[in-house]
Amino acid sequence: MLSRLSEWFWNERLWFPGDLGWADLEDRDGLTYAKTSDLWVTLPIALAFLIIRQIFERTLAIQMAAALGVKEKIRVRATHNPTLESYFRITSKNPKQSEIESLGKKTGYSERQILRWFRRRRNQERPNKLKKFKEASWRFTFYLLAFIAGLAALIDKPWLYKMEEMWAGFPMLTLLPSQYWYYMIELGFYMSLLFSVASDVKRKDFKEQIVHHVATILLISFSWCVNYIRAGTLIMLVHDASDYLLESAKMFNYAGWRKACNYIFIVFAAVFIITRLVIFPFWILHCTWVYPVTVYPPFFGYYFFNGLLFVLQCLHIFWAVLILRMAIKFLPGNNIVEDERSDREETDSEDDENALEGRKAPVKNGPVQNGHPPLNNNHHRKTE
Question: Which residues cross the membrane (predicted)?
Answer without folding.
Answer: 39-56, 140-160, 180-198, 260-283, 303-324
